[in-house]
Write a structure and sequence with these properties.
The protein has about 675 residues and is of the alpha+beta class. The protein folds into four domains: about 1-225, Heat Shock Protein 90, CATH 3.30.565; about 235-395, 2-Layer Sandwich (Ribosomal Protein S5, domain 2), CATH 3.30.230; about 410-540 and about 630-665, Rossmann fold (3-Layer(aba) Sandwich), CATH 3.40.50.670; about 545-605. It has 19 helices and 27 strands. The strands form six sheets. Strands 1, 2, 5, 6, 7, 8, 9, 10 and 11 form a nine-stranded mixed sheet that branches. The chain has a five-stranded mixed sheet with strand order 12-13-16-14-15, sandwiched between helices. Helix 8 (about 290-310) runs parallel beside helix 9 (about 355-375) and helix 11 packs across helix 17. The longest helix is centred in the first third of the chain and has 31 residues, at about 1-30. The radius of gyration is 28 Å and the shape is globular. The chain binds 3-[3-(1H-pyrrolo[2,3-b]pyridin-5-yl)phenyl]propanoic acid (0RA). 3-[3-(1H-pyrrolo[2,3-b]pyridin-5-yl)phenyl]propanoic acid binds next to helix 3.
C-alpha cells in the first residue's frame, strides 16, 4: 500500500513541476513579446494594464455581482483596482496543488475558464487576463475577500513570493478583489499614468453599465472623479450630443433574444455628421459588425414603412430613403452582450456573429414601430430631416458628377502638385501630406521616390465640421487629397482602393501646424474614417531642436530629449575647460553664428527650415523616423473633441482650451 501511495505522490509532484515550468514559460513569453499581448510598450500599452484589470471587475458586474470599481493611482507609480465582486475563487486545485487564485494570477488565459455562461471577452487586445498584467509588473499583490476571510498573495514579475495565505477576517457582506501593481520599468518606456486617459475608459464603462459606480483617484495630483450614470445609454447619447441641437428626446430600446441582451439609444440632431458607437461586452467595436448592420437595416425599414403608411412621402415624389439618408445627424450607442463573440477585421474590433444581425434587427423593428406609433411628432421630425438629407445627397451627387467631369476627383487625373512614387503596390507605398510649398519642395527632394509620394497642400483646408458635403467637395485642397488617396468619397468611398498603405500628415511643430493637422484629421475622421480605423493614418514627428557640438549633430523631438542630450554633451566635455560648456541658443536656423567649440541649439520653427537631407534623416527615413499611428480607440472621445474644437458652439471650445491648453496646444 505504501508503495502505491508513494508512486501517486511522485506522479503528482511531476505534474506539479511540469505545470510550474509551463507557468514560467508563459510569463517569459509575455515578457519577451509584451506587444503581442498589450499592443505596445508605450503609454497606450501601459494604460492597457489598468483597463485589463478594470475589465475583469466589469465582467463581475456583467455577471451581476459587482456595483463598484475604485481605481487609485498612487504616488509611487503603483495602481490599485478594487471591486465588490465575488472575489477570485481561492479553493485548492487538487492536481495543481495551488489555490485557484494563484492559477488565475499566474496562468495565461486562466481567468475565463471558470465561468462558462458569462458574457466575456475573447478576442482582440482585451481579455488577455490579469496574469499578463502580473507578468509585466515589477511587483503585484492581490487581496480577496470571500466567505468571511481575507486571502492574499504577492508576486515579483509574475512569480509568487509565497503561496496564498489568509491574513484575517472581515465582517459583513462585502466580498471583492483588490489588485495593486507596479508596471515594470524594464518593460515600459514610461510608467507615468495619465488621469484623463484612465478617466476616459472609466467614464465609458459607467455609461455602459448604469448600475456600476466607477471612482478614479489620483494621489499624485490629489484629484478624484466619480462616474455614475443612472440613465445609462440615454445619458451617454446626451453627453455625445451636448453641443448639438437635438430634434427630440433620445429614443431608448431594450430587449433580449437567445441570451443576447440588446440595448440601444439614439437621437437626431441638426448636425450633418453621424456619430454612432457600438459595443460588444463593453468593448468598443470600432469597425462595427453584425449588430450595427442589424440596427441600420431595422432603422431604414421601420422609418420607410412608417413614412409611406402615414403619407409622409408621396409615391409621386420619387424619393426613397436609403440607409445613408438616415445617417445624417444620427447619434447612437449600441450595446450588446454576446456569450461567444467572434471578433474580425484589421484591428479585431468588428463583430462577426451572424445571428446577432437578426436579433438586433427584430428587437429594433418591433420596439421602434411601437415607439413611432406613440410619438408621431418625433417620427415626422426625423423623416423630414431624412427627406432633406436625401435631397442634399442628390445635390451632392450632381456636384460630384460635375467635379468628376472636370476630372478633379478622378485618380486617372492625379493632382498636378502630387509627386507620386514609382512603385504602385499600395501596401508598400506611403503619401506625405505636407503643409506648405517650401516644405513640400524639401520633402520631394529628400524622399525615397520609389515608395514615397508627396502632396503639398496650401494653408488651412476647409473646416468640414461646419460645411455641407457639396461645399466639402468643391474645396480644391480636399479634391487633391481625395484623388491622390484614390479611395473615393461619400457613397463611392472604398478604403480598399487607397493607393497608399500609409497616409502621413506632416505639419509644422507650431500652432498653425497643429491647427492644419486638426483640420486634416477632422476631414479624414468624418469622410474617410475606415482609413483611420484600419490604422493607415499617421502623424510625422519632425524634430523640435538640432543640437550641435563640434562635429556632432543630434536632433531632439521634445524638451525632455533636449535636456538629456545637453546633459550628456556637457558630461562628455567635463575635464576640459570653460568655453566648451557654453551653450548658445539660436532662435532661427542660423548655423553661421555657431561657436565652433560650444554647444548650439537651433529650434526648428517649420519644416521649411530643414534641408532635404535633414528632413529625410529625421522625419522620413523609415529606419530612423518616429511616426505616430492615429487610432480610434476612444472614438467617442474623439468625436466629442472634434465637435468641441471645430463645431459651432464657442463657449465649450473656450472651456476645453482653457482646460487642455498645456497638452493640446491647439489654435482654434
Ligand atoms: C475567476 C472566476 C470567477 C471570478 C473571477 C475569476 C474574478 C476575477 C477578477 C479580477 C478582478 N476582479 C475579479 N473578480 C472576479 C467566478 C467566481 C465564482 O464563481 O465565485
Amino acid at each position: 500500500m505504501a508503495k502505491k501511495k508513494t508512486e501517486e505522490i511522485s506522479k503528482q509532484n511531476q505534474e506539479y513541476t511540469a505545470k510550474s515550468i509551463n507557468v514560467l514559460k508563459g510569463l517569459e513569453a509575455v515578457r519577451k513579446r509584451p506587444a503581442m499581448y498589450i499592443g505596445d510598450v508605450g503609454s497606450r500599452g501601459l494604460h492597457h494594464l489598468i483597463n485589463e484589470v478594470v475589465d475583469n471587475s466589469i465582467d463581475e458586474a456583467l455577471a451581476g455581482y459587482n456595483d463598484r470599481v475604485v481605481v487609485t493611482i498612487h504616488k509611487d507609480q503603483t495602481v490599485t483596482v478594487e471591486d465588490r465582486g465575488r472575489g477570485i475563487p481561492v479553493d485548492m486545485h487538487p492536481v495543481e496543488k495551488k489555490s485557484a487564485l494563484e492559477v488565475v494570477m499566474t496562468v495565461l488565459h486562466a481567468g475565463g475558464k471558470f465561468d462558462k455562461n458569462s458574457y466575456k471577452v475573447s478576442g482582440g487586445l482585451h481579455g488577455v487576463g490579469v496574469s499578463v498584467v502580473n507578468a509585466l509588473s515589477e511587483w503585484m499583490s492581490v487581496e480577496v475577500k470571500r466567505e468571511g476571510k481575507i486571502y492574499f498573495q504577492e508576486y515579483i514579475r509574475g512569480i509568487p513570493k509565497a503561496s496564498v495565505k489568509q491574513k484575517g477576517t472581515y465582517k459583513g457582506e462585502n466580498t471583492g478583489t483588490k489588485i495593486t501593481f507596479k508596471p515594470d520599468r524594464e518593460i515600459f518606456k514610461t510608467i507615468k499614468f495619465n488621469f484623463e486617459t484612465v478617466a476616459e475608459r472609466m467614464r465609458e464603462l459607467a455609461y455602459l453599465n448604469k448600475d456600476v459606480t466607477m471612482i478614479l483617484r489620483d494621489e499624485t495630483a490629489d484629484e478624484e472623479e466619480t462616474f455614475r450614470f443612472k440613465g445609462g445609454l440615454i445619458d451617454f447619447v446626451k453627453y455625445l450630443d451636448e453641443q448639438r441641437n437635438s430634434l427630440h428626446k433620445p429614443v431608448y430600446i431594450e430587449g433580449e433574444k437567445e441570451n443576447t441582451p440588446v440595448e440601444i439609444c439614439f437621437e437626431y440632431s441638426d448636425s450633418y455628421n453621424e456619430n454612432v458607437h457600438t459595443y460588444v461586452n463593453n468593448i468598443n467595436t470600432i469597425e462595427g459588425g453584425t449588430h450595427l448592420v442589424g440596427f441600420r437595416t431595422a432603422l431604414t425599414r421601420t422609418f420607410n414603412n412608417y413614412a409611406y403608411k402615414n403619407g409622409l412621402i408621396k409615391e409621386s415624389s420619387k424619393i426613397s430613403l436609403t440607409g445613408d439618408d438616415f445617417k445624417e445627424g444620427l447619434t447612437a450607442v449600441i450595446s450588446v452582450k454576446v456569450m461567444e463573440p467572434q471578433f474580425e477585421g484589421q484591428t479585431k474590433t468588428k463583430l462577426g456573429n451572424g445571428e446577432v444581425k437578426s436579433i438586433v434587427e427584430t428587437i429594433v423593428g418591433e420596439k421602434l414601430s411601437e415607439y413611432l406609433e406613440e410619438n408621431n411628432s418625433v417620427a415626422k421630425k426625423i423623416i423630414d430631416k431624412c427627406v432633406r438629407a436625401a435631397e442634399a445627397r442628390e445635390a451632392a451627387r450632381k456636384a460630384r458628377e460635375l467635379i468628376r467631369r472636370k476630372n478633379a476627383l478622378d485618380t486617372l487625373h492625379l493632382p498636378g502638385k502630387l509627386a507620386d512614387c514609382s512603385i504602385n503596390d499600395p501596401e508598400h507605398c506611403e503619401i506625405y501630406i505636407v503643409e506648405g510649398d517650401s516644405a513640400g519642395g524639401s520633402a520631394k527632394q529628400g524622399r525615397d521616390r520609389r515608395f514615397q509620394a508627396i502632396l503639398p497642400i496650401k494653408g488651412k483646408i476647409l473646416n468640414v465640421e461646419k460645411a455641407k458635403i457639396n461645399k466639402v467637395l468643391e474645396n480644391q485642397e480636399i479634391q487633391a487629397i481625395i484623388s491622390a488617396v484614390g479611395s473615393g468619397i461619400g457613397e463611392d468611398f472604398d478604403p480598399d482602393k487607397s493607393r497608399y498603405g500609409k497616409i502621413i500628415l506632416m505639419t509644422d511643430a507650431d500652432v498653425d501646424g497643429s491647427h492644419i493637422r486638426t483640420l486634416l484629421l477632422t476631414f479624414l475622421y468624418r469622410h474617410m474614417k475606415e482609413l483611420i480605423a484600419s490604422g493607415k493614418v499617421y502623424i510625422a514627428q519632425p524634430p523640435l531642436y538640432k543640437i550641435k557640438k563640434g562635429k556632432e549633430e543630434l536632433y531632439a523631438f521634445d524638451d525632455d530629449e533636449r535636456e538629456k542630450i545637453l546633459k550628456r554633451m556637457k558630461a562628455d566635455g567635463k575635464g576640459k575647460k570653460s568655453k566648451e560648456d557654453e551653450i548658445v541658443e539660436v532662435e532661427e536656423e542660423s548655423e553661421e553664428t555657431t561657436q565652433t567649440k560650444g554647444i548650439t541649439i537651433s529650434r526648428y520653427k517649420g519644416l521649411g527650415e530643414m534641408n532635404p537631407e535633414q528632413l529625410w534623416s529625421t522625419t522620413m527615413n523609415p529606419e530612423t523616423r518616429t511616426i505616430l499611428q492615429v487610432n480610434l480607440e476612444s472614438a467617442a472621445a474623439a468625436d466629442k473633441i472634434f465637435e468641441t474644437l471645430m463645431g459651432d458652439a464657442v463657449e465649450p471650445r473656450r472651456d476645453f482650451i482653457e482646460k487642455h491648453a498645456k497638452y493640446a496646444n491647439l489654435d482654434v
